[in-house]
Amino acid sequence: MTKIENMREETGLGRLLSECFAGGELLRRELRLSRAQAERLAADYPAQVRPMGENWYEITFQGAYFHGN
């Protein structure tokens, strides 16, 4: 992977998270990500990243309320 591709992936991930988590209103979602994106998200953000299979991941940001837990 070239540096340009890596930058695009990181920028795309940030944009995706911004769009999907609506500025912090939502704290848990299921997203389809590449393995590299999921690893980057887990490393760079205060979020729990749980693989669900077939490139789907449950993303839970710190502070999310777990009903029943």
Explain what you see.
It is built from two helices and three strands, in the order αβαββ. The longest helix has 18 residues, at 3-20. The chain has 69 residues and is α+β, with helices and mostly antiparallel strands. Residues 1-8 have low confidence and may be disordered. Helices cover 41% and strands 26% of the residues. The chain has a three-stranded antiparallel β-sheet with strand order 1-3-2, with helices on one face. It has helices at residues 3-20, 35-44, and strands at 28-32, 47-53, 56-61.
The percent of residues in helical segments reads: 40-55%
What is the count of helical runs? 2
Average pLDDT score: 78
Percentage of β-strand residues:
25-35%
Task: List segments where confidence is low: pLDDT < 50 over at least 5 consecutive residues.
Answer: 1-8
Arrangement of strands in the largest sheet: 1-3-2
From the alpha-carbon coordinates, what is the Rg to the nearest angstrom? Answer: 12 Å
In short:
It is built from two helices and three strands. By secondary structure, the chain is α+β, with helices and mostly antiparallel strands. 10% of the residues are buried.
Sum up the structure in keywords:
69 residues, alpha+beta, 3-stranded antiparallel sheet, 2 helices, globular
Topology record:
Layout: H1 3-20, E1 28-32, H2 35-44, E2 47-53, E3 56-61
Antiparallel strand pairs: 1-3, 2-3
